[in-house]
Each structure stands twice: as C-alpha cells, then as structure tokens.
Amino acid sequence: MNPVFLQIGPIVIRYYGLMYLISFLFAIYIANLEIKRRGLGWNFEKYIDLMMYSFLLSILGARIYYVIFTWSYYSKNLADIAAIWKGGLAIHGGIVGAIIGILVFSRMFKFNLWTVGDISVLGLSLGQVFGRFGNFMNGDAHGVPTSLPWGVIFPSDTPAGMQFPDTPIHPVMLYEMVLDFVIFLMLWRLRKRPFKPGFLSMLYFILYSIIRFFVCFFRADSLMLGPLKVAQVISILTIVVAGYIMYSRKLWETESL
User: Fold this and answer.
1) Most buried residue, 78, 84, 167, 169, by CB count within 10 Å?
2) Using alpha carbons only, what angle is made at residue 19 by residues 11 and 131, rounded to the nearest 5 degrees?
C-alpha cells in the first residue's frame, strides 16, 4: 500500500484525495441520471451548487468531528488540524455536514428535501466505497491484529503500521468497502419503486448504521467517548431516529396509496 497515486516533481496526487474527487464526480453523474429519470425539472446547475456546498460542508464536518474527539493530540499539534491528507475524516461528522448543506440549500433553491436526500444517498453510498479504498491505501481507519489468513501487514510509515508494526491486522476498510457497495446496489435496485420520498434516505441510514456498528468491533482507531466507541453510540441513535421517521411517515408505502 502506498498513499501516493502519482508524483511528478513537487506535484503529489494522493489516493485519499483522488477517491474523494472520484466520489464527487460519480455523485454528480448519478444525480443527473436520477433527476432526468424522475422528470423533476430542476435547474441542474443549482443542484450542482447544492452538491458542491454540501460536499465542502461534509469535509469540514468530518474534520471538525475527528479533531474534537482526538483533541488530546491536536491540542498539542495545532498545525496538523488542516492536514487532512494524513487521514482523519470521520464519516459521521461528514454526514452531519452534508445534511446541513442539504437542509439549507434545498430550501434556498426550492428543491424537495426528501427527494434530494434520496438522490444524495445513492452517490454517498457509492462514494463511501471509493473512500474506504482510499483509507486502505492510506493505511488509516484500520483494524485490530488478527491471525486470520487475510490479515494485512501495513507499511511502517502508515497509521496502521505505526500502531501495529509487522503485524497482520483486519483490513476493516475492505470489509466496509464491500458492505457499502452492497448498500449501494440495494438502493440502486429500489430507486425505481414508488416509495414515498425519504424512504431511500432512511433506509441508507439504518443499513449503514448496522454495518458501522459491527465493523467497529474490529476497528483499532475508533474515536472514544469514555469507555464507549462514539461510532457505535451514534449508529444506535441513528437507527432509532431513522426508524422512527420511516415508521411515523410510513415511508415504505407507495405514493399511489
């Protein structure tokens, strides 16, 4: 594994950043397909603006979230707060940032909030597949030691290699990458069914939270809140909230009912 995809003189292209760019481009492509298929008649340029702002807020939210829960390190290394190329973007913070962007700009551009959410989670779930590959190449978001035959030994200059030198560990990034792709396929298959707006969004939150809750058992770098893993606590809360919204709004019903 090597975090650098390409280097030409002083110009360095890292897998971590490249995967985020690919994710964003795929999100735009999928959104364009869905807006046309649904016959929404939205101004696509404004929708791209919404996606751009939400994407930037997601990066900001992901970093702020990570820094807050690892403040013991960053309080002594303030210069590293902006060094996102070293890793340290927490998905839950990113989702919060994206939700804020969608809430604000859906209202501003007069897009249906629930429909924007349903379209967005298609790109988000696929983007997470690329993101986890970036984590794998970067050697962060890593697992605990394992004796299983598929354990991976990471280079000594990666976060995983520094914590567990010359030790096979669970490639949890690949576990989640595969499971995120399964979520994407499920959502992609269901997108043409006439569920109420918001169904795909809440289904995504429930499915991803279940996956993240169990993957956390194999994560070594989980952010902690006292004795608890923050991601597991948030996953449980997300399942409860998304489940309540789905139940209270009966989102599984078709719009024709």
Assistant:
1) 169
2) 140
Who has greater pLDDT, 222 or 9? Answer: 9
- pLDDT score of 251: 95
Residue 102 confidence class, pLDDT cut points 50, 70, 90: very high
- Give the pLDDT confidence of 187-203 residue by residue, as tens digits: 999 999 999 999 999 99
- Whole-model pTM above 0.85? yes
d(C-alpha 58, C-alpha 89), whole Å:
9
Report the alpha-carbon distance of residue 2 to residue 134 in Å, rounded: 10
Distance, in Å, from the CA atom of 19 to the CA atom of 13, rounded to the nearest integer, reads: 10
Rg (C-alpha) for the chain, rounded Å, is: 19
Helix (H, G, I), strand (E, B) or coil at 12: strand
Question: Shortest CA distance to 145 belongs to which of 165, 170, 163, 166?
Answer: 170
pLDDT tens for each residue of 208-227: 999 999 999 999 977 777 77
| Residue 8 DSSP SS3 | strand
Taking all residues of the chain, what is their mean pLDDT, rounded to a whole number?
A: 91
